[in-house]
Amino acid sequence: MTYVTAVSMKILMVCLGNICRSPMAEGIMREKLKDLYPGSIIDSAGTGGWHAGENPDRRAVKNMNDHGIDISKLVARQFHPKDFENFDLILAMDESNYEDILKISNNEEQNNKVKLILSYMPGQKTLSVPDPWYGGPEGFEHVFHLLNDALDKVILKHFKDAGR
């Protein structure tokens, strides 16, 4: 396994509008790391900017509250090229966002920071987290479980002593 040498990382979650999937991933990861790796910085952004300044979708907030995680105060923002400098790992929620992020990158080092979040889950039929925007509560619940499982794998791969 490959681990970072530090006990903390700066991780950015990215989806399209930054009001459903990526803030959910941000909230889950913050919760998972808060005691073990409190120095970690977790943020989220969208490849599109039309929701910038908005809080997460109310259905995402409710789903996360049902799991004991509060994301209601998060604020959407658009992905910026400076994010390549500011983060160690950039986790895209789907293949379209992954490609959009890579189009902005300037070099191989930046490209290597970008991963599809479901690529950490062996045996996945798809590498894209479905967008729950058009669905009901069951879609948000499905996304929660996908992200929760994938982020466990991210932690095992990137954090020293995470498996102990």
Name some characteristics of this structure.
164 residues; disordered N terminus; 39% helix; alpha/beta; 4-stranded parallel β-sheet; Rossmann fold
Task: Explain how this protein is built.
Helix 1 links the parallel strand 1 and strand 2. The radius of gyration is 15 Å and the shape is globular. It contains 6 helices and 4 strands. Strands 2-1-3-4 form a 4-stranded parallel sheet, with helices on both faces. The protein has a single domain (about 10-160), classed as Response regulator (Rossmann fold). Helix 1 crosses helix 6. It has about 160 residues and is α/β, with parallel strands linked by helices.
Give a quick precis of the structure:
Helix content is 39%, strand content 12%. It has helices at residues 21-33, 58-66, 83-86, 95-104, 108-113, 137-158; strands at residues 10-15, 41-46, 89-92, 114-116. The protein has a four-stranded parallel beta sheet with strand order 2-1-3-4, with helices on both faces.
Topology readout:
Blueprint: E1 10-15, H1 21-33, E2 41-46, H2 58-66, H3 83-86, E3 89-92, H4 95-104, H5 108-113, E4 114-116, H6 137-158
Parallel strand pairs: 1-2, 1-3, 3-4
Helix pairs in contact: 1-6, 2-6
The string of secondary-structure elements, in order, is EHEHHEHHEH
CATH topology: Rossmann fold
Major sheet summary line: 4 strands, parallel
CATH C-level category: Alpha Beta
Net shape: globular
